[in-house]
Specification:
By secondary structure, the protein is α/β, with parallel strands linked by helices. It contains 16 helices and 13 strands. The radius of gyration is 21 Å and the shape is globular.
């Protein structure tokens, strides 16, 4: 029986879903693969629960409820105050450890680099370590045991497909895709003649957007995903190199969320005209990320309605690879690309890649 010890950084929505999936599937993993995943540490930004012998399941489940109630791990009966993730990796890490980052923070980077230097496994759902400083990206990639499928497309095999193409010697000429389930939902609403502001407010009320919908509408999250793909293709690019076109004017960045949701009503006419013009040209509006020949573009585009992107509906993600072998018709990956459970499942699939190492 192989034991893989987990140090998990982050206990938000994705982190809590991951813990539940690990516990619920423990028997199946043991019987099917001869692998036991055990938690030795779970951390939030200010506290941690650590046990090098393994945190009992009842303590983990109680910690989840504790977090749902809005309290931090530093105040949990089994927790303590600790805001240095590197210290957790130093104390709890062993040769069988995988450090899992399901935060959205740059503060975890020192802990991840320490894990890489010690030969531990690292699994990322957090995009920021791979999209910041290029030297950090290179050092993380130098590790023998790094997985980050969930950074792009949640549980979809976007990274695995790209790496498989590259390993085969196929030349990847262009990648384009719809990489945001939230913006995909908005584009479908526009296509159904729903006013832009109403579609945004609907998505916000349904919980499809980030707490501040500008985090979605600004396109930065999509840009980070595109940058990860571009860097994997061998391009030395940074976020500031991306041609990024947000869906709202930057002049309303500084106002409250409530006022923002009111202010975007002024954009309804513009988007209505764009939808109609695209329709008359047998096209559809999509928020597209494109990586080609060392250039990244992220923004609104009119695409043929008969194309893979044009046929896309709802909150699905889609990535199309145009390569030497897939030149006339691209290789397309499509499916659910958002949601805490889907992202956590992608992380768990990455974790299981460490069996047998």
């Amino acid at each position: 029986m192989q034991t893989i010890s987990l140090i998990q950084l982050g206990l938000g929505g994705v982190g809590r879903s991951l813990v539940r999936q690990v516990l619920n599937l423990r028997r199946w993993h043991r019987e099917k693969y001869g692998v036991r995943l055990r938690y030795v540490a779970v951390c939030d930004s200010e506290g941690a629960i650590v046990s090098t012998d393994g945190i009992p399941d009842d303590v983990l489940l109680d910690a989840l409820e504790w977090k749902i109630s809005g309290k931090g791990l530093k105040d949990h009966p089994a927790g303590y105050c600790q805001n240095d993730a590197s210290a957790i990796v130093d104390v709890a890490g062993t040769k069988e450890t995988v450090v899992v980052d399901v935060t959205a923070s740059e503060e975890t980077i020192p802990a991840l680099l320490l894990a890489i230097r010690r030969g531990y496994g690292v699994v990322l759902a957090n995009k920021k370590p791979l999209t910041g400083d290029m030297e950090v990206y290179r050092e993380l990639k130098s590790g023998q045991f790094l997985r980050y499928e969930a950074t792009v497309g949640s549980g979809l095999p976007v990274i695995a497909t790209l790496q498989r193409l590259l390993r085969s010697g196929d030349r990847v000429c262009r990648i384009e895709g719809a990489l945001s389930g939230t913006l995909g939902y908005l584009m479908s609403c526009l296509q159904d003649d729903v006013p832009f502001s109403e579609a945004v407010r609907m998505a916000y009320k349904l919980g499809y957007t980030e707490p501040d919908p500008r985090d979605d509408l600004g396109g930065v999250d999509v840009a980070r995903k595109a940058l990860i793909l571009a860097r994997d293709m061998g391009y030395d690019l940074n976020l500031e190199d991306i041609a990024l076109d947000p869906l709202y004017p930057t002049g309303i960045d500084g106002i409250s969320i409530t006022r923002f949701l009111e202010a975007i009503s002024a954009l309804d006419g513009k988007f209505s005209r764009m939808v109609k013009e695209a329709f008359l040209d047998e096209k559809a509006l999509r928020y597209v990320a494109s990586v080609t020949e060392g250039e990244i573009r992220v923004g609104l585009e009119s695409v043929p309605r008969s194309s893979p992107l044009g046929l896309l509906r709802g909150s699905d993600n889609l990535v199309a690879y145009y390569t030497s072998h897939y030149d006339k018709m691209p290789l397309v990956i499509q499916g659910r690309g958002a949601g805490t459970d889907a992202t956590a499942a992608g992380v768990l699939a990455d974790l299981m890649e460490f069996r047998g190492r």
